[in-house]
Amino acid sequence: MPFASVDPSSTDITPLIHHPVLWAAAAGVFAVIILQSVIYFRAIRKAAPAVGLTPAQVSSSVRSGAVAAIGPSLAVALIAISLLPLFGTPAVLARIGLVGSAAFDVAAAGISAGTQGAQLGGPTYTQKIFALAFAAMTIGGLAWMISALVLTPILSRGDAKLRKVNPAVMAVVPTAALLGAFFTLAFTEVIKSPAHMVTMIVSAAAMGVCLLLGRRLRRPWLREWGLGVAIIIALAAAHFMTAA
């Protein structure tokens, strides 16, 4: 679609949210992700023998990671679908589909629109407001990426020093950090309603049963697919709780 069709004061944002430049940018982002994934998979397979991992173990780990990504991916996909009318497919793919933080992106877009006295999706949501909102989301994401780029080497040096002082510390810290993060995420949800509490308990029980059966029956696939099974059972429990 030509640039001449873009009118900053127009409330018809369709020509802008589906602009070829945005499609090209989104395609470029995902091309980089695919290339990185290929490089990482090759590096994993090449380094596996050095750490005592067999090809079967590597494949099992990849499958486990793929299954574990189903739940978060479904959540992001549902949120992305609801935001398509506001931001369009290319912007949603590049922002929510890539970063996955819909709460931050919507908040940033809403704040930027509010500075112009406009509202997302309202009669004042013009092409100019969309451009400002998308710029705010992009700049916020860029700050995260730059922070990771700067802080990762610093944290890596700290990790190396701690391992020299006490290797056991770095075996405990990552586990504690993960437990703390997941506990925080779970706690913020379960306090919302009894349905949230029941859903979490059911999902935890389903995951525990899958792990137990996988160990007792010597069926590794039960452990790999445990998260996916727990998600499906939890969704069913949530449906019955809210429908009751």
TrEMBL record:
The keyword Protein transport does not apply. Keywords: Membrane, Transmembrane, Transmembrane helix. The chain crosses the membrane at residues 20-44, 65-87, 129-156, 168-188, 194-213, 225-243. The keyword Membrane applies. Signal peptide: none annotated. This is DUF5058 family protein. It comes from Arthrobacter nitrophenolicus. The lineage of its organism: Bacteria, Bacillati, Actinomycetota, Actinomycetes, Micrococcales.
